[in-house]
Amino acid sequence: MKLNKPIKLVTGxxxxxxxxxxxxxxxxxxxxxxxxxxxDVINRTMPIQSLLDQPDTDPALKIRLQLVLQIRDFASSExxxxxxxxxxxxxxxxxxxxxxxxxxxxPLSLEATRWCFPFAGCVSYKGYFNEQDARDFAAELKExxxxxxxxxxxxxxxxxWFDDPMLNTIINRYDPELAGLVFHELAHQQVYVQDDTEFNxxxxxxxxxxxxxSWLDSVNxxxxxxxxxxxDFVTRKKRRIQFVELVMATRGKLAAIYQAETDDNKxxxxxxxxxxxxxxxxxxxxxxxxxxxxxxxxxxxxxxxAKLGSIGTYHRFxxxxxxxxxxxxxxxxxxxxxxxxxxxxxxxRHLALDKLVAD
Length: 359
Known about the structure:
Layout: H1 5-22, H2 28-44, E1 45-47, H3 48-53, H4 59-77, E2 89-91, E3 99-105, E4 115-117, E5 121-123, E6 126-128, H5 131-143, E7 147-153, E8 166-167, H6 175-190, H7 197-219, H8 223-259, H9 264-286, H10 296-299, H11 305-309, H12 318-328, H13 331-342, H14 346-358
Parallel strand pairs: 2-8
Antiparallel strand pairs: 1-2, 3-6, 3-7, 4-5
């Protein structure tokens, strides 16, 4: 549903009232900024076709918007993803990130602080539409003695509660990554389970990978060229996995240190040494990436438990979902099978996915 200005305003007010009514008094300020931030996004949103029809729209932007519509149409027509108005509109937020997430953890523990929200469930971060608000909250947590990390996030999903627009923060991404992101986020609208990040992200990643391969084949008459582009896309994903595995190995080392029967000062010294080793290991891996800057920015600032905790192995079940997709053959049948899994208890759901790989 494309919203005009009056409807946008009513929607935003309704959102604000609902969030405030369901929130505890201590959370009023946070939910107010969430509602205000979402309303701002809504008010900046315009249908892509309207922008394409306007003669004063930047020609370079028009090219990207046309690509977005092509990707969006493919998502529903060929991948059977939700046929709604998500990513059929555009919003220029006039900032580099859509939101800023705050992560926190004790200085001698990798147990991330968690916050619980209506609809989304419990997560290990708190998101803000305003960077300074995020940094102010992080400063409060730091004063309490916690490790903190503030991360700028280019895109987020409302999980179908609103028609998510394409944002200026992501529209200029490498074409396959842009397509993959749209497929990934729409997959979350297709199936989403509260409090099971591994399931949700593994499913969405499987749709992203398979969908991107299918889309590249559809837009490239030269199959060899399509395969080359896809392999480049996969290589970027593999580098991400290398980075995650490096961080997870470091977390394992730190977990052993934190659990040891030694004094806290010694643990802090060992923590510093492990993080120093992590930086050296990244420098070694980066040399194999043919100049790809990868995660330089991540490593060029403070590394602590909160920052390490923001990285997770969320792709554990990708092999299982790939096998299920191959078995079901069509995306529609695949989604029905995934939806059936989603209704199981979490333990049973994970066991079923593990069994898929083992069989």
